[in-house]
Amino acid sequence: MLIYLQLISEPEDRELFVQLYEKHRVAMFNRANRILHSKQDSEDAVHEAFLKIAEKIELISSLECHKRDKYIVTIIENKAINAYRAKRLHPTEPLFDLAEYAVVDAYEDGDFTRCILKLPHDYREVLLLKYDLGFSNKEIADALDISQALVRKRLQRARNALRRICKMEGINDIF
């Protein structure tokens, strides 16, 4: 949430944003998921929607309560529909075939590799671009045609997911 709050200068607007975030985040995810049928894509759409809400918080604060709700629903639906159209028009393939890529040799026992292979391809891509190839967030955003904010969010989610998977596999010395 700190990413969003950094975009807002006024304390009253920050407080309103926090209230809107807590009230709508689950409903926004569910709405996006009905359109996109993908957890990762829905999370990305919600993230993009909250960025838009943070940018437009002054306008939103001037609206009546019921109009705010409608405005937020419109934002998430538009973000989800745009994501659906973009994926349909430009389907993405993984940039890497991890079975052939050098990350497989990173650990001789293959435990860490198995953990990485369990990640969704969107998460694997950003991790490999960032940590193996040394790309900056801007370079990753350009390569994947997504925003830098979305790159940061995917990296955060990927690290958290990898941490959970490694813990389930009994690998605790990685992080």
Describe how the helices and strands are arranged.
Layout: H1 2-5, H2 11-36, H3 39-55, H4 57-62, H5 65-89, H6 111-117, H7 121-132, H8 137-144, H9 148-168
Helix pairs in contact: 2-3, 2-5, 3-5, 7-9, 8-9
Structure report:
This protein folds into two domains: 2-89, Rna Polymerase Sigma Factor, Chain: A (Orthogonal Bundle); 102-168, Arc Repressor Mutant, subunit A. Helix content is 72%, strand content 0%. The protein is built from nine helices and no strands.
Name some characteristics of this structure.
175 residues; mainly alpha; Rna Polymerase Sigma Factor, Chain: A; Arc Repressor Mutant, subunit A; 2 domains; 9 helices
Task: Sum this structure up briefly.
72% of the residues lie in helices and 0% in strands. With 175 residues, it is an all-alpha fold.
Tally the structural domains. Answer: 2
Mean pLDDT: 84
Give, in order, the helices and strands.
HHHHHHHHH
- β-strand number: 0
The Rg value, from CA coordinates, equals 18 Å
Unreliable segments (pLDDT under 50, ≥5 consecutive)? Answer: 98-108
Q: What is the overall number of helices?
A: 9
